[in-house]
Amino acid sequence: MRFIASNAASPAPGRRAWLARAGSAALACAAALWPAAATAQAATYELDRDHLTVAFLVDHIGYAKILGMFRAAKGSYRFDEATATLSQVRIEVDTASVFSNQRKRDDHLKGPDFLNSREFPRMVFTADGARRVGERGFEIAGQLELLGRKQPLTLQATWNKSAESPLGGPGGKPYVMGVSARGSFKRSAYGMNYAVANGWVGDEVALIIEFEAVRQ
Question: What pTM value is reported for the model?
Answer without folding.
Answer: 0.80
